[in-house]
Design brief:
Layout lengths: L2 H15 L19 H13 L5 H14 L4 H7 L12 E2 L2 E2 H15 L21 H12 L23 H11 L25 H9 L10 H11 L10 H11 L3
Antiparallel strand pairs: 1-2
Helix pairs in contact: 1-10, 2-7, 8-10
């Protein structure tokens, strides 16, 4: 299939799937329950981190978490007393449990005590809007996330990084939600220092399968290099917003068009 034909096909699929109707059955519906920037960031982050398994289950677990936060995630994180943390005990989704949750709360309280947005957590070190490197950003983010004393060793597995050769699917998905903006309003576009062309395509099982069919991935493994390869190939179709094609690849995979 020639590049032009594939581009037209994928552009059509983006237009088809990047619609408000996509929100309801996807974990992105969780941050869409909020209007306050910090609430959107916090619940978007949790929805992405918990994105394992059936989408319906992920959404239900995130709604349970919102209830445990008394419906106000940012306020709970910044104003809770020690006794309020009892509300979080017993929370579990797959291998993510209340020990992990309590550390996530500690980190978020620490971070929002210093910055007004979670975007700052991805702009550490020598990062600038001129020479931004997503690989460096994600490695720095993990180091920062676990910079608090006495973090649980078990919790490290829930934050991936290129240094581990991970494709960083969940964090890349979260970053797509926060950074991309268009008229469709599925993604939020509430961050402006990280640009859409900086993003790396989330490489989940549906995206990977469809991308291989189209020759957009050649590696037989799924790791950071695979995600970068996919993104670079998508830049042939749109160098400024390559990750919009996540809608096409994911959508085709989910509905089984191939």
């Amino acid at each position: 299939m020639a590049d032009f034909d594939m581009k037209q096909f994928l552009d059509d699929k983006v237009a088809s799937f990047n619609q408000h109707t996509f929100i309801e059955n996807d974990p992105i519906c969780i941050p869409h329950l909020f209007t306050k920037k910090q609430d959107i960031e916090i619940m978007g982050f949790f929805a992405a981190i918990l994105a394992w398994g059936q989408r319906k289950t992920i959404i239900n677990k995130c709604k349970e978490l919102i209830e445990r936060f008394d419906g106000q995630p940012a306020d709970f994180i910044m104003r809770h007393e020690e006794v309020d943390l009892r509300n979080l005990l017993g929370f579990k989704h797959r291998t993510f449990n209340d020990t992990d949750l309590l550390y996530f709360i500690s980190f978020l309280r620490f971070h929002y005590g210093r910055f007004s947005s979670l975007e700052d957590a991805f702009m550490l070190g020598d990062q600038s809007t001129v020479s931004f490197s997503m690989e460096e950003s994600l490695n720095e983010f993990k180091a920062y996330f676990f910079s608090l004393p006495d973090y649980p060793i078990r919790t490290r597995k829930h934050i991936s990084s290129p240094l581990q050769k991970s494709s960083c699917k969940r964090i890349n998905m979260f970053l797509r939600w926060m950074v991309r903006r268009d008229r469709q309003g599925v993604d939020f576009g509430i961050w402006d220092r990280i640009k859409p062309h900086d993003l790396i395509c989330p490489c989940d099982v549906h995206v990977e399968r469809v991308a291989r069919k189209f020759g957009l991935i050649t590696s037989d493994k799924v790791n950071w290099k695979t995600a970068v390869e996919l993104t670079e190939n998508l830049k042939r179709f749109d160098p400024e917003d390559p990750v919009k094609y996540d809608f096409a690849l994911f959508g085709i995979g989910v509905i089984g068009e191939l």
